[in-house]
Design goal:
Blueprint (H helix, E strand, L loop, with lengths): L1 H22 L14 E5 L6 H9 L10 E5 L2 E4 L2 H7 L16 E5 L2 E2 L3 E9 L2 E9 L4 E9 L6 E6 L2 E6 L9 E8 L4 E8 L7 E9 L4 E6 L4 E6 L4 E7 L5 E4 L2 E5 L5 E7 L1 E8 L6 E7 L5 E4 L9 E7 L8 E10 L3 E9 L2 E7 L2 E2 L8 E6 L3 E8 L5 E12 L5 E12 L4 E4 L7 E9 L5 E9 L4 E9 L4 E8 L3 E9 L4 E9 L3 E3 L3 E5 L3 E10 L5 E8 L7 E7 L3 E11 L8 E10 L7 E10 L13 H23 L1
Parallel strand pairs: 16-22, 40-46
Antiparallel strand pairs: 1-3, 1-4, 2-3, 4-5, 6-13, 6-15, 7-12, 7-14, 8-11, 8-13, 9-10, 9-12, 16-19, 17-18, 17-20, 20-21, 23-24, 24-29, 25-28, 25-30, 26-27, 26-29, 30-31, 32-33, 33-36, 34-35, 34-37, 37-38, 39-41, 41-44, 42-43, 42-45, 45-46
């Protein structure tokens, strides 16, 4: 009997505690925190569990307090979405503000949620009807807290799309009611109607309510009564984000699925401003985490290439600026290992490489054509500089990354690099054949815009030899006169539109003329011959003039000649008779060769003439040595003597 009485007392206490919790004006905070997927995070990070609990305990929520499942520092957890919504309403009619002045972020189903809270207030002595019309992203549950503070003979009726959910009948006594409702709201033109009737004179009908949307909402008020609407809590401004990845990739923020990319690998979403960490999930591929910053200035774009399970790297690729013909493009790759990668090698095929950098250090090419990178345990950067084609259009090449894990399993990433070579904004015309001297380069704008152009000539060591700039007008042309003094390899660099357009052209000038010998020996009265070799690499006949300047002649010795197309090192002779009575033993002759009609020579060189005392014809041989000539003459004299004796016999 005693046990039965004890059990009955315990049951009554439990029942009273339950009833008390239902009608409690202040929320009950459990000693043990039970986390849920419905919570708020206070903006003030200095709030401890004790401070948060004490402040909650001082709040009078009227007759409808939210059920709190736990508090942990500045995090407050709720038993349900409805309890979270009650917390986000006004505290009460007498305290028409949000808890903590609304300085918190809201999370629904464990995911950050936008929220709109609208407070409405009406007071009248007559009978009037007004409405609030709302539009949201979809049909959903909304939460309405309502409370009256009426005089005699005053009442209110609230309906949602024609369905009454709140009613206070005016009578001879002041009628009060507090109610928290969970309603279904339509996507567009959802109508919450307020019918308020006062008792006349100073017998006011008063009602205050809040509507909580876990969404972005547009709203407006209409009707014959002033329905004062104030937005207590506004969701953060959103920005558009275009996500590019593999087709059928699921994109999550936390545990919330934002969406799935379409067949083209695109998903467009809207996210609140600020940083968001997204997770990319696709069957047969490694999961990827990516952080995106959403801003109001422009649409954000994020590119993620999924790595299949047989690859060890997650690779993000980005080109530096626009790509133009005859240029050097730069591909930057952020390489993130799924797990530590050992003995990593890089191979590139389908494009001519200029340089490869790993963490800003240039890598040498190994004997097998690969680039040795080594072990990678965290995100690293690889930059590939490559030469573009001479024509514009869509292009592609491949990058292969091979590595092993700690168990020796081999992985291979084979990345296809697609890029677009843009058409140059100008027409570039160069000489058919670059030559020593002045070469005309003509630029003609094809874009219809005016912009600056800088042209720079570098030699093979990278030393600047010449530069010039101009402002190229729309659809106009300009001629640059590019001077080249010597044969060799050069690079002509074009910069246009403040450096956003770059193009490079290789120039090779082969020495067109070379002397057979720098020395010549001849005797006075004999004919001497200067010999030189000249080439014509072009596809047309070339005409030249050779001029030999001798100190002992008043005029030059000239010779005009032509060379057939494609001729390599044709030998040309230019002869003259050595005058009698020269006083000196040595003279310096100057040979100059000109393109037909030019005044600047394509070649200028010197020949040393030695005057021999012998008059033998061999002395006129270019580069003849006097001693050898005398020996040769003696041999011929002896041979001639023996031949004469033989004839006498």
């Amino acid at each position: 009997m005693v046990n039965l009485i004890k059990r009955s007392i315990v049951f009554l206490l439990l029942l009273l505690s339950v009833l008390g919790s239902v009608s409690a004006e202040t929320p009950t905070i459990p000693e043990t925190c039970t986390t849920t997927n419905f919570y708020v995070v206070l903006t003030d990070t200095s709030m401890t569990t004790e401070l948060t609990t004490a402040q909650l305990g001082a709040m009078d929520f009227g007759l409808s307090a939210p059920s709190i499942s736990g508090v942990e520092n500045n995090w407050i957890y709720f038993s349900s979405k409805s309890d979270l919504a009650r917390f986000c309403s006004i505290i009460s009619y007498s305290s028409p503000t949000m808890p903590f002045s609304g300085a918190f972020s809201v999370y629904v189903d464990g995911h950050f949620s936008p929220m709109t809270v609208i407070k409405l207030n009406a007071a009248t002595t007559g009978s009037y009807t007004s409405n609030i019309i709302t539009n949201a992203s979809n049909s959903q549950m909304i939460y309405v807290y309502s409370q009256t503070s009426n005089s005699l003979y005053a009442g209110e009726t609230l309906g949602n799309n024609g369905v009454q959910f709140f009613y206070v009948s005016g009578g001879s006594t002041a009628a009060q009611l507090t109610q928290f409702d969970e309603l279904v709201a339509l996507t567009n033109n959802n109508n919450i109607s307020y019918y308020v009737h006062g008792g006349g004179s100073d017998r006011y009908a008063r009602i205050m309510s809040t509507i909580v949307y876990f969404d972005y909402v547009d709203y407006s008020t209409t009707g014959t009564m002033s329905l004062n609407a104030v937005e207590l809590y506004s969701p953060p401004e959103q920005g558009n984000v275009s996500i590019y990845s593999d087709a059928d990739t699921q994109i999550y923020e936390g545990t919330y699925l934002l969406g799935t990319t379409d067949n083209g690998g695109l998903l467009d979403v809207q996210l609140p401003m600020g940083k968001h960490t997204l997770k990319f999930v696709k069957d047969g591929y490694w999961d990827v985490l990516k952080t995106v910053t959403v801003s109001a200035e422009n649409n954000s774009e994020i590119y993620v290439s999924m790595a299949p399970r047989n690859a060890i790297f997650q690779v993000e690729k980005e080109f530096s600026g626009n790509i133009y013909p005859n240029s050097v493009a730069s591909l930057s790759m952020d390489v993130t290992p799924v797990k530590t990668a050992y003995a990593t090698k890089l191979r590139v095929s389908g494009v001519e490489l200029s340089k490869v950098y790993y963490n800003t250090q240039e890598l040498p090419k190994a004997a097998d054509g690969s680039y040795i990178i080594g072990d990678i345990s965290s995100t690293q950067q690889i930059v590939i500089d490559f030469k573009t084609t001479s024509s514009w259009g869509e292009r592609a090449f491949t990058v292969e990354l091979s590595a092993t894990d700690i168990e020796g399993t081999t992985y291979t990433n084979l990345e296809t690099i697609n890029y677009n070579v843009l058409e140059l904004p100008f027409l570039f015309e160069t000489p058919d054949t670059w030559a020593i001297g002045v070469n005309d380069v003509i630029l003609t704008d094809m874009s219809g815009e005016s912009y600056s152009v800088l042209m720079v000539l570098y030699d093979e060591s990278g030393t600047e030899k010449w530069s010039s700039s101009t402002n190229l007008l729309e659809y106009c042309d300009y001629t640059f006169e590019v001077p080249i003094e010597d044969a060799g390899e050069y690079t002509l660099e074009l910069n246009a539109k403040s450096g956003t357009v770059k193009s490079y052209y290789s120039i090779e000038i082969i020495e067109p003329v070379s002397l057979v010998s720098d020395f010549l020996t001849a005797a006075s009265g004999n004919v001497a011959t200067v010999q030189f070799k000249i080439s014509n690499p072009t596809e047309s006949v070339k005409y030249y003039t050779a001029e030999l300047t001798c100190p002992f002649f008043n005029n030059t010795v000239d010779k005009t000649f032509s060379i057939a197309p494609g001729t390599v090192e044709k030998t040309v002779d230019i002869s003259f008779e050595v005058p009698e009575g020269l006083e000196l033993e040595y003279y310096q002759l100057t040979l100059e060769v000109f393109n037909e009609g030019d005044t600047d020579p394509i070649y200028s060189g010197n020949v040393v003439l030695t005057i021999s005392s012998s008059s033998l014809f061999l002395a006129s041989v270019p580069g003849g040595n006097p001693t050898l000539i005398i020996i040769a003459a003696a041999v011929l004299l002896i041979a001639g003597t023996f031949a004469a004796l033989g004839l006498k016999k």
